[in-house]
Amino acid sequence: MYNFNYHRATSRDDAKAKQGGAEDGSYLAGGMTLLPTMKQRLASPSDLIDLAGVSDLAGVRRDGDAVVVGAMTTHAAVAASADVAQAIPALADLANHIGDPQVRNRGTIGGSIANADPAADYPAAIVGLGATVLTDSREIAGDDFFTGMFETALNDGELVTEVSFPVPEAACYMKFPNPASRYAIVGVMVARTADGVRVAVTGAGPSVFRSAEMEQALSGNFSPDALDGISVPAGDLNADIHAGSDYRAHLVGVMAKRAVAGCG
Question: Candidates 3.30.390.50, 2.60.40.10, 3.50.50.60, 3.40.50.2000; correct CATH number of 170-262?
Answer without folding.
Answer: 3.30.390.50
